[in-house]
């Protein structure tokens, strides 16, 4: 599945101190937890919870971009609730 970057996503990454390679590590990780979500406007999106190579727990948000393409909307550190959900999922694997 090809990924393309939403231009505004780079600003989001900078605000959260997340490097582009960390986002790609989550997207291409063997073990990641996809969670369907909706934007404030009702658009279907997907939060992908995962662990970077250095162990950082991140959420990468993507949305369909047409065809088989997916657009990277942004990324952030997991909330406490997301961290608990991810760690429980990870321990059950």
Task: Summarize the model shown.
It is built from 3 helices and 5 strands. By secondary structure, the protein is an alpha+beta fold. The mean pLDDT is 91.
Describe the 3D structure.
The protein is an alpha+beta fold and 93 residues long. It contains 3 helices and 5 strands; from the N terminus they run E-H-H-E-E-E-E-H. The model has no long low-confidence stretch (mean pLDDT 91).
Strand and helix layout:
Blueprint lengths: L2 E3 L3 H8 L3 H8 L5 E6 L5 E8 L5 E10 L2 E9 L2 H13 L1
Oligomer: single chain
Arithmetic mean pLDDT: 91
- Largest sheet entry: 5 strands, mixed
State the helical fraction: 25-40%
Order of helices and strands: EHHEEEEH
Protein traits:
single chain; about 90 residues; alpha+beta; 5-stranded mixed β-sheet; 3 helices; 5 strands; globular
């Amino acid at each position: 599945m090809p990924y393309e970057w939403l231009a505004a996503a780079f600003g989001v990454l900078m605000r959260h101190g997340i490097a582009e390679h960390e986002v790609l590590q989550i997207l291409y990780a063997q073990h990641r937890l996809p969670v369907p979500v909706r934007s404030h406007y009702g658009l279907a999106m997907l939060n992908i919870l995962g662990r970077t190579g250095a162990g950082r727990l991140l959420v990468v948000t993507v949305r369909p971009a047409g065809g088989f393409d997916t657009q990277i909307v942004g990324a952030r550190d997991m909330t406490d609730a997301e961290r608990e959900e991810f760690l429980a999922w990870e321990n059950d694997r």
